[in-house]
Amino acid sequence: xxxxxxxxxxxxxxxxxxxxxxxxxxxxxxxxxxxxxxxxxxxxxxxxxxxxxxxxxxxxxxxxxxxxxxxxxxxxxxxxxxxxxxxxxxxxxxxxxxxxxxxxxxxxxxxxxxxxxxxxxxxxxxxxxxxxxxxxxxxxxxxxxxxxxxxxxxxxxxxxxxxxxxxxxxxxxxxxxxxxxxxxxxxxxxxxxxxxxxxxxxxxxxxxxxxxxxxxxxxxxxxxxxxxxxxxxxxxxxxxxxxxxxxxxxxxxxxxxxxxxxxxxxx
Length: 267
Hints:
Blueprint: E1 2-7, E2 24-28, E3 31-35, E4 41-45, E5 52-58, E6 67-72, E7 89-91, E8 94-95, E9 104-106, E10 109-112, H1 115-125, E11 130-133, E12 140-142, H2 146-156, H3 196-208, E13 224-228, E14 233-242, E15 247-256
Antiparallel strand pairs: 1-15, 2-3, 3-4, 4-5, 5-6, 6-10, 7-8, 7-11, 9-10, 11-12, 13-14, 14-15
C-alpha cells in the first residue's frame, strides 16, 4: 500500500560540485553571447528574422575548436532565393572579398574553423557596421555589439592579452585550461515496476480523491498516470490545465507503507 502524498510544486535539480565556470548569457546591442559551465561560448547576430545570420563559437583552453558561420536560410525559414553568398556580400556597402581557401563554401552557407581565416575575416569586419547582400537590401547582419561580445568571450575563456584573443590580443602564449566538466552521479538502479493492484489503486485515488477543484480542465478529459520513482516512492500526475500546446499536471510524490489504509498528507 501507499501513503504520504507530497505535492511537488517545483522540480529539484541535483547539482554536482565541480570546478566549473558560471553559465552566462548577455546581449551586446545586436549580438547575443551564451557560455555554458565549460566556458564554451557562442556569439550570434540577432534577430536573424530575415534569414541572414552570423555565428562565432569557441571552446575554452588550447583545443578551442573555433567556428565562424554565415548562413542565409535555415531549417526554420527553408531555402531562400538568391545567388551564392561567396560573391555577394557587402560590408558597409562595399564588396567583401575574403580569401575562401580554407572555408566550406555552399551557395547560402559559409563556414570555417581555420584560425587564420577567422582572424582575417574579423579584421575585415570587426569595426564595421553591417553585412548585407548585393541582391537583397532587406536582410542584414548588424555588427554593432560583435566586438564587445567577442571581448567578453575572450575574458570568460581567459584569453585577453594572449596571442589567441580575438579582440584584445597580446604576447602571452598560454591560456587557462577548460573548466572541468561536471560529472553526473552514478545512475540509480531501475525501481521495481508497480503491481497491477498498486497501479489501479493509485489511479483510482488520483481520479476520485485528489482535490482538483482549482483545475480548469474538463473532468471528462482529465487523465491520471503513475510511475515508480524508487522501490518506496511513486509519481502521481493528474492533468489540471490545458494550453494550446501542452498540459499542466498536478504532481504528487507518494510513499509506500504496509497499511491497507490511505493516509494522505499534502505539503
